[in-house]
Amino acid sequence: VYFVTGGAYTDIGGAADDFHFAYFPVTGNFAIQALIENIVPFTSTEAGIMIRSSLQANASFALGLLHTDYGAYGFVRRADAESVASVGYNSYLGIPTSIWVRLERTSTTNVTYSRSYDGVFWDTYGYETLPFGSNVYAGMAVATRQYRDKATAAFRDWQIEQ
Question: pTM of the prediction?
Fold first, then answer.
């Protein structure tokens, strides 16, 4: 289990990000997944699995996440310094307290977003074509819009498959 802590009043979005990112450099095609749980505080906080083109604050990225206000879906920044868009948001899914998220990268530019409530049966909810090079950063991201509270999330059974 990895516990990742982010600072108070941080965010993933806009043209530049401000959040905590525990990452690994990865090359080529791969899939990453983890069970996200124990998010604190459980208001205005987001935790997820991310692939980034670089470590710059405005880098393009794909993010599968659990947002404590909106549920399990994804974010994407399709090019460096662009605004962030939602992927697969569905208000009818509710807000689980834990969820499996998975991102799979193929042909260095295609990313598939999936989520699961049990880690066995997966719901693919988005596809993106992103301007990633061969070398990227994959990891765990945590942020909260709370002014006084730091965000923490547990990432259980984290794995990268190549």
Answer: 0.91
